């Protein structure tokens, strides 16, 4: 007990203080920059992310811009605050404020499909359908009744971040420019870069010339022979889609995130940020066909939480799972954007606590505006500044979340259950034209499963198949994934799993590990053929829930429980109206810690939780 209270009163807490987006959205004046930095520090904020945004009249990446950055670095260093650089003017990251779009070869590509009664030589690829439904690519007219045409289009507003040349130019025009001027500050006051929503073309079926060579190298086939399958649904389509979106995800991860991560590592700074729309399976197809592999290549994995809705655990749990498996201390959330000017501090607290209990431990508030003139009033409010009527009490909020983040970042989640993440199954079925409809059953089943695990307080983490593939090994009935170990593996309703995943899970089961398989999740793809694995369920789902109900606790469904350090720390969050939780024998072993005051108190067998209250229980005597 004393150790935890000592920790939460120490300077270690400062490492978990928030770093809000600081929207530079007007003509910058050094006196005003200095005033706002002081104001942020007084409010308990630990640093800021310099973010070029709509309304900025100081030219982006100009000498004047860098002069202001240097001035802020001096001010931040004097105050022991952190400075992070948002790597773009606007979003998504990767176009250098429009500069790279001047090169047509750098622009993002996408595909469209139609059926004609004639052969069109202008199409990227033309197909005829055989009697068995398979497609054959044509190079000239053949007297077909129908010609199935796929056309290549170019976006005027997005870059192709799957193209290594685009990413090289992005780094040269952005990151290298900061390093040329502030190299001695890197890793000190200038902590790193925030990358925001990098994506292939999200609004239609994505394509990149980079996938053409990658497909040929990986499969010895031409990707143009199968593009029609992105618009059709049959067995041949599933195999092609699995390969295609798998390669798109790999190019997204390797050509973008890994390149930036390695550059930052080599230049004594860090990478953070987030992909686009992480919470649902189908929305992850909008940006990079899956977000979890990219977290390996962020020093501080990050997520985005827009609006007031308290949805589900997916976004924070995905990032926190990979962070735990890869030994990363911090998980960041960009949060509160689009909540509106009328959002109360209590609502903000609930939104943030929901993310923290699933593993987030640091906050990037969206946003603190340099100016509220013009567009500043309408730019995805609220804006956290002295204009808020509760600004004088804002430090209480920031101190609270710094302590909560420190508590979470300094302890480990109790977790013996690994849940195989079904993102790859989405690749089999996803049709961009149908979007959510094409994978609705898979999406809803997964949400239902994880909601049930949460309601039953079953500690669990997600296993991404890419991360599992190169970080996983089996020993004595335990599946290890990096720094984490799992005694039980739960495979949700999935049509297929990866070949390497099947190998690891067969080894896991053979060595005594316990597998719970929901549905017929036993096929894997080997070459062009689906094969049956030897995976059988050793454990009924109901039995799994009984084995892993860590502590006897009676609670309503609105209450979320998180166990840390083998149960020495228990977080209990009420996401709704006032309610009661019964501890069933735990009351004599724990005390209750108030994170606002760091005072402790005895615990009764029944806990009365106020609306949106987070209760922290620490094992020991008060």
Please provide a brief summary of the model:
With about 625 residues, the chain is an alpha/beta fold.
What does it look like?
- The protein is an alpha/beta fold.
- Helices cover 31% and strands 24% of the residues.
- The strands form seven sheets. The chain has a nine-stranded parallel β-sheet. It has a five-stranded antiparallel β-sheet with strand order 6-5-7-4-9.
- Helix 4 runs parallel beside helix 7 (235-266) and helix 6 (209-219) crosses helix 7 (235-266).
- The longest helix has 32 residues, at 235-266.
- The mean pLDDT is 94.
Helices and strands in order:
Elements: H1 2-8, E1 21-24, H2 30-42, E2 47-52, H3 63-78, E3 82-89, E4 107-116, E5 125-129, E6 135-138, E7 147-159, H4 164-173, H5 175-182, E8 190-196, E9 205-207, H6 209-219, H7 235-266, E10 270-274, H8 281-284, H9 292-295, E11 300-305, H10 314-325, E12 332-335, H11 345-356, E13 362-365, E14 368-369, H12 394-409, E15 417-420, H13 423-429, H14 440-455, E16 460-463, H15 465-471, E17 472-475, E18 478-481, E19 484-486, E20 488-491, E21 496-497, H16 499-510, E22 514-517, E23 523-526, E24 529-532, H17 541-547, E25 559-564, E26 569-574, E27 579-582, E28 590-593, E29 600-602, E30 606-609, E31 614-619
Parallel strand pairs: 1-2, 1-14, 2-3, 3-8, 8-10, 10-11, 11-12, 12-13, 15-16, 15-20, 20-22, 21-23
Antiparallel strand pairs: 4-7, 4-9, 5-6, 5-7, 17-18, 18-19, 23-24, 25-26, 26-31, 27-30, 28-29, 28-31
């Amino acid at each position: 007990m004393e150790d935890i209270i000592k920790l939460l009163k120490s300077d270690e807490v400062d490492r978990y203080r928030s770093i809000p987006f600081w929207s530079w959205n007007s003509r910058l004046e050094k006196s005003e920059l200095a005033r706002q930095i002081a104001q942020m520090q007084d409010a308990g904020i630990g640093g800021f992310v310099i973010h070029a945004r709509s309304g900025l009249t100081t030219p982006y990446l100009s000498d004047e811009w860098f002069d202001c950055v240097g001035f802020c670095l001096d001010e931040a260093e004097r105050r022991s605050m952190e400075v992070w650089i948002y790597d773009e003017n606007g979003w998504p990251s990767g176009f250098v404020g429009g500069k790279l779009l001047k090169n047509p070869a750098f622009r993002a590509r996408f595909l469209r499909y139609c059926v004609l009664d004639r052969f069109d030589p202008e199409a990227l690829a033309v197909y005829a359908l055989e009697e068995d439904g398979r497609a054959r690519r044509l190079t000239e007219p053949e007297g077909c009744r129908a010609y199935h045409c796929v056309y290549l289009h170019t976006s005027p507003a997005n870059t192709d971040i799957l193209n290594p040349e685009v990413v090289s130019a992005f780094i040269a025009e952005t990151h290298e420019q900061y390093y040329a001027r502030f190299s001695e500050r890197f890793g000190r006051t200038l902590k790193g870069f925030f990358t925001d929503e990098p994506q292939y073309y999200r609004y239609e079926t994505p394509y990149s010339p980079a996938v053409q060579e990658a497909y040929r190298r990986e499969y010895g086939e031409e990707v143009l022979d199968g593009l029609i399958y992105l618009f059709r649904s049959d067995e041949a389509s599933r195999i092609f889609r699995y390969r295609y979106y798998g390669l798109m995800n790999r190019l997204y991860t390797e050509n973008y995130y890994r390149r930036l991560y390695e550059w930052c590592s080599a230049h004594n700074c860090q990478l953070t940020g987030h992909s686009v729309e992480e919470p649902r399976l189908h929305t992850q197809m909008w940006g990079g066909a899956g977000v979890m592999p990219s977290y390996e290549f962020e020093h501080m994995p990050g997520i985005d939480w827009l609006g007031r809705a308290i949805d589900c655990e997916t976004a924070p749990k995905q990032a926190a799972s990979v962070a735990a498996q890869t030994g990363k201390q911090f998980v960041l959330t960009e949060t509160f954007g689009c909540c509106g000017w009328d959002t109360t501090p209590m609502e903000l607290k609930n939104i943030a606590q929901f993310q923290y209990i699933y593993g987030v431990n640091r906050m990037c508030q969206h946003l603190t505006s340099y100016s509220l003139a013009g567009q500043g009033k309408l730019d995805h409010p609220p804006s956290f500044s002295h204009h808020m009527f509760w600004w004088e009490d804002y430090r209480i909020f920031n101190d609270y979340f710094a302590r909560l983040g420190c508590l979470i970042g300094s302890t480990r989640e109790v977790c013996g259950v690994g849940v195989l993440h079904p993102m790859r199954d989405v690749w089999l079925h996803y049709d961009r034209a149908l979007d959510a409809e094409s994978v609705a059953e898979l999406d809803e089943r997964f949400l239902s499963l994880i909601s049930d695990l949460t309601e039953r307080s079953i500690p669990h983490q997600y296993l991404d198949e890419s991360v599992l593939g190169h970080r996983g090994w089996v020993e004595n009935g335990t599946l290890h994934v990096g720094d984490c170990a799992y005694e039980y593996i739960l495979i949700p309703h999935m049509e297929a799993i990866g070949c390497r995943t099947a190998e690891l899970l067969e080894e896991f089961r053979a060595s005594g590990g316990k597998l719970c398989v929901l549905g017929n999740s036993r096929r894997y793809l080997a070459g062009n053929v689906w094969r049956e694995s030897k995976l059988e369920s050793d454990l009924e789902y109901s039995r799994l829930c009984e084995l892993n109900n860590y502590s006897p606790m009676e609670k309503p469904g609105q209450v979320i429980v998180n166990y840390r350090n083998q149960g020495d720390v228990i977080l209990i969050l009420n996401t709704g109206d006032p309610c009661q939780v019964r501890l069933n024998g735990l009351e004599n072993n724990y005390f209750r810690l108030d994170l606002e005051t760091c005072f402790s108190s005895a615990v009764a067998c029944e806990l009365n939780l106020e609306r949106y209250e987070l209760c922290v229980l620490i094992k020991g005597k008060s």
